Amino acid sequence: MSKRNISLSIVFATLIIISLVSYIKISNLENRMHTIDNMQHEIQNVNSSVQSISREVHMQMDEFLQEQLWISEKEYQITAVDIEKNTIDVTLEWSLRDLLDQEEISFLYREDSTNEWTELDVKNNNGLNYSTSRTFPLEGNYQTQVIATSDDGKRSEDLLELKFKEQLDNRIITDAFLHPSGHEQFTLDINIHNRLDHEFMLAQNSDDFKIKSAKAFLYAKGELLKELDLLKENRNFHSNSKGENITYHQSLSLGKEIGEHGDNVELRVIIEDGLGLKYETKVNSIN
């Protein structure tokens, strides 16, 4: 056999060996990948099982905690809202799990800002079902509780939180941004949402909670530079039974009006509803 044939045989054999080694490595890699896929599948199954067990545990814990509560059911209904007198009429209803001999039920409430409780008589509707009605000032947040009193002592449990003022204060949400975009140039973005499908909305006062005025003011060092009427100048005003939305986007050139104040411009958005309540948001262009 010539040297050339010997060399070709060696090269051919080497290629065969390399191919076999590569094939074995690829086969091993595929087996490992298959094993990893199986492991991932098993891990996903274990994770799903853990999540299922966790949900079941939480459900059982919630059921257990509910069974420990003395007050099994509770709710309140708004029966009237008097805007002129700034009051709200509320009926509260609840059911007890048990009542010991000689125990008398009463209802207590207090405003968040005070420590003094006011006691009201309650009405026994039937069995362990009770109710009471009260006229509250509209701009207040209240805590309530039910108390049972007998010769042997007292026991009580929180009933409901009546967050009337908080709901009024957070009813209109305003996101406002003022971005410097160049020399004396600004980009103004304002998004306003007024929720209308809340519990205060009754047939007789549906217009009182709607936006009557929405304006934006640009200031520099306390000096008014520009005023914008967001209702008159804005075509992107949408209203339905669930809410009102105002979207305002505009590029502004303040020109010489900005003077020596540079980019330090303050934006104030003031919204007023039919009740006369005002909601103000302030942002600064350098924030």
Structure description:
This protein is of the alpha+beta class and 287 residues long. The protein is built from two helices and 16 strands. The protein has helices at 3-68, 164-169, and strands at 71-82, 87-96, 104-111, 118-120, 123-126, 129-137, 141-150, 153-163, 172-182, 185-195, 211-220, 223-229, 237-239, 243-253, 266-273, 278-284. Strands 1-2-6-5 form a four-stranded antiparallel β-sheet, with no helix packed on it. A four-stranded antiparallel β-sheet has the order 4-3-7-8. Strand 11 (211-220) and strand 12 form a beta hairpin.
Order of helices and strands: HEEEEEEEEHEEEEEEEE
CATH fold annotation of the largest domain: Immunoglobulin-like
Any idea what the CATH superfamily of the largest domain is called?
Answer: Immunoglobulins
Strand content: over 45%
Tally of structural domains? 3
Helix content: 25-40%
Mean pLDDT: 81
CATH architecture of the largest domain, please? Sandwich
Gross geometry: flat
What is the CA-atom radius of gyration, in angstroms?
35 Å
Structural class: alpha+beta
Sheet with the most strands, sense and barrel status: 4 strands, antiparallel
Number of helices: 2
Strand order of the largest sheet: 1-2-6-5
Level-1 CATH class name of the largest domain: Mainly Beta
N- to C-terminal separation?
87 Å
Give start-end ranges of low-pLDDT stretches.
none
